Amino acid sequence: MSAREVKELLRRHGVIAKKGYGQNFLVDARVLDGIVRAVEPDARTVVLEVGPGLGALTAALAERAKRVVAIEKDGSLRPVLDEVLAPHGNAEVVYDDCLKVDLRALVAPRLDEGDRLVFAANLPYYVTTPILFQVLESGLPVSRAVVMVQREVADRMVARPGGKDYGVLSVGVQYRGEVRRLFNVPPSAFMPQPGVDSAVVEIDCDKRPAMRAADEEALFRVVRAAFGTRRKTLENALAAGLGMPKEWVRQKVVAAGIDPGARAEQLSLADFVRLADEMEK
């Protein structure tokens, strides 16, 4: 869908892009094609999309996928999506707030045995992380996620230990799959143009790390506490963040084979899993 086509579609339906919803509509066919190729939709693929906007990606996916289930918060886009998706009977739009929807109850009944579930979205930048984890923690059998995010967020998603971008988001997504940046996207690919660069990131959930935490909630409590005060040593950050005695924390950190004087950004995902398991003993 070109910029001219988007303008005409919006004019015809009396719709304007809502800044409060982070609406920046994709108008670059090459970027659209790149996302579709990354999803690899086929006759056994069910796609969950959040924020379909004007339906350009939804329609492109529906041409090749078995089914597309899209969640759109902005009900004023209904006439636009009705028009764009009219040729695609396998595309369904649910008008609701993704963060308030029971995703498992919505999507699971639409999956048949042997289906492959992929999450694909041009995520609103102001709620990128909540939506991403809403999906990844839903209990749905997500095989892959292909998401457009702000470039700085992509930097954090793919960051490795030791760098300034490595943090809670890095550990959170890398625990759930193999993460890689596919390509960057300039502001000119959207209408209206955002004030930041974007990037498309893939999370291959079928290639998640073999090491799993005994208690995942405990793991991310530890991760959030460790990064809560990045300048502090690990033992000080954990003692403050978890409200536990410093000496007890030191003993647990040492028992996990980690230097208490290290800082959170020096720990690998495996280090965090060992540490969380040790702290739950």
From TrEMBL:
Annotated signal sequence range: none
Keyword presence, Transferase: yes
Residues given in the record as S-adenosyl-L-methionine binding sites: N24, L26, G51, E72, D97, N122
Keyword Cytoplasm on entry: yes
Subcellular location: Cytoplasm
Keywords associated with the record: Cytoplasm, Methyltransferase, RNA-binding, rRNA processing, S-adenosyl-L-methionine, Transferase
Molecular function GO terms recorded: 16S rRNA (adenine(1518)-N(6)/adenine(1519)-N(6))-dimethyltransferase activity; RNA binding
Catalytic activity: adenosine(1518)/adenosine(1519) in 16S rRNA + 4 S-adenosyl-L-methionine = N(6)-dimethyladenosine(1518)/N(6)-dimethyladenosine(1519) in 16S rRNA + 4 S-adenosyl-L-homocysteine + 4 H(+)
Enzyme class: transferase
Source taxon at top rank: Bacteria
A family per Pfam: RrnaAD
Entry's Gene Ontology cellular component terms: cytosol
Domain Ribosomal RNA adenine methylase transferase N-terminal: 31-207
EC number(s) per entry: 2.1.1.182
Homology family: Belongs to the class I-like SAM-binding methyltransferase superfamily. rRNA adenine N(6)-methyltransferase family. RsmA subfamily.
Function: Specifically dimethylates two adjacent adenosines (A1518 and A1519) in the loop of a conserved hairpin near the 3'-end of 16S rRNA in the 30S particle. May play a critical role in biogenesis of 30S subunits.
PANTHER family assigned to the protein according to its UniProt record, in alphabetical order: DIMETHYLADENOSINE TRANSFERASE (PTHR11727), DIMETHYLADENOSINE TRANSFERASE-RELATED (PTHR11727:SF7)
Annotated protein name in UniProt: Ribosomal RNA small subunit methyltransferase A
